[in-house]
Amino acid sequence: TMVVGVSRLFTSKVFRKKIHDILKVGIGGTLAFGGISIYFKNEKFYDSLVMPMLHKLEPETAHNVAVMAAKYNLVPEVNLKESELLESRVLNLLFKTPIGLAAGFDKNGEAVEGLFKMGFSFVEVGSVTPLPQPGNPKPRVFRLKEDLAIINRYGFNSDGHEAVYERLSQLPPPGHRKAVLGVNLGKNKNSVDHVQDFILGVKKFGPVADYLVINISSPNTPGLRNLQHREELGKLVSAVVTARDSLSGTHKPPLLLKIAPDLSDDDKKDIASVILKNENRIDGLIVSNTTVTRPLWLESAERQEVGGLSGQPLKSLATHTVTDMYRLTRGLIPIIGVGGVASGQDAYEKICAGASLVQVYTGLVYHGPLLVHRITNELEDLLRLHGFSTVTEAVGVDCKQ
Question: Tell me: the pLDDT tens digits for 46-62?
Fold first, then answer.
């Protein structure tokens, strides 16, 4: 009964409007202890109290609570690690570490500064659609606890360009932030002109984003993945690059494509050939989105839910796709590797496979906010152990052997 009550509280509109007061007054004692534990970065506090409590909530409710916690700085503050070993320049941007937050967590740009404080060197918000849309009917997120995975079929629920732009424009401008901000662009479900949706996104968020992502790989928007095919992709890339290049002022953010892990070898070759053309030069790839495949060894009852699978079962497929794209682009196009990263070893494997940067999301759901700090420290140790003096030296090393 208590769980149902809490769930209703967290999903109500009143809660979203008044959360600050509720948190201050209603659960002050817990937060007092929580504040102390956060201050000391007490991992046991999360493992034994916070994460089990969140997992008693319905998954989407727990997600919303986590976003609100970051929004109101109820998360552990971790200073970004100053390390010559971890620092790199990618996409002509400086990254203090290679570890960032994938799109899908802060869909509407509500919690950017709180997420920066958690120790991410970059945060990607979105996907953001031109017009507000509710996404698919609930329930649309499922925890596969036994598999350390999630299936989602959100369907680009978004506050829309105007609302998200308004929030992001309150932040310091590009080049003056604590960390790097990416904006992931989507298309509206009922849009008749897919390309125009992405052009609108480039024009709207170009002035406030450090980098932009063209998301053509969510499995939950009908027809979206068709944009990965050669002819469609060529038209799209040409249009968004032109839109970016025509932005007024000197700030012209790099453009990345986010692709699926479920591509045929021919699809991968087509993508590589399109983005390597000089007139269509895309600045980077994000590899990969969720998968619509289901490994036979999944144990959770929810494994047959429709949607995109993320987390540990995606790891090897995503890493394999990183390797393929690194080889096909001859290491000329920076890759952000994402999919199943929950340890320094996972991040290290993505980097050696060809990723210059790495993103985390589902791992946070199971391991809590201190995971970022742990991955960063473990990665630094592994790079040092294997004799690298910078993380850049390790990028694609497995492809070169």
Answer: 777 777 888 888 888 88
**What's the CA gap between 56 and 183, in Å, rounded?**
31
The one-letter amino acid at 46:
Y
How far is 377 from 86, CA to CA, in rounded Å?
A: 10
Select from 230, 231, 229, 201 the least CA-distant residue to 214: 201
Catalytic residue among 121, 127, 217, 218: 218
Is the torsion defined by CA of 138, 47, 31, 164 positive or negative?
negative
pLDDT digits (tens, 9 = 90+) for 336-393: 999 999 999 999 999 999 999 999 999 998 998 889 999 999 999 999 999 999 999 9
**Tally of domains in the chain:** 2
What burial class does residue 4 get, using C-beta atoms within 10 Å of its C-beta: 0-12 exposed, 13-18 middle, 19+ buried?
A: exposed
> From the CA atom positions of the chain, what is the Rg in Å?
20
Query: What six digits make up the tokens of 158?
Result: 């978004």
**Is 197 found in the same domain as 64?**
no
Q: Which of 278, 373, 314 is nearest to 86 (CA)?
A: 373
Alpha helices in 227-300 (DSSP H): 230-245, 265-276
Q: Are residues 281 and 239 in the same domain?
A: yes
- Residue that the structure tokens 């409007």 belong to: 17
pLDDT above 50: residue 126:
yes
Domain range for 196 is 78-400
Tell me, yes or no, if 218 is annotated catalytic.
yes
The Cβ of residue 48 has, within 10 Å, a number of other Cβ atoms equal to: 11
For the chain, how many residues are written?
Answer: 401
Distance of alpha carbon 102 from the chain centroid: 1
Strands (E), 12-121: 88-90, 93-95, 99-101
Q: With the C-alpha atoms ordered 372, 375, 381, 383, is the resulting torsion angle positive or negative?
A: negative
Closest CA to 353 of 295, 396, 301, 390: 396
- Helix residue spans in 303-357 (DSSP H): 315-328, 344-353
Query: What is the maximal distance between C-alpha atoms in the chain?
Result: 60
Q: Provide CB contacts within 8 A for 348, sequence distance 6+.
A: 379, 382, 383, 394
Same domain, 27 and 169: no
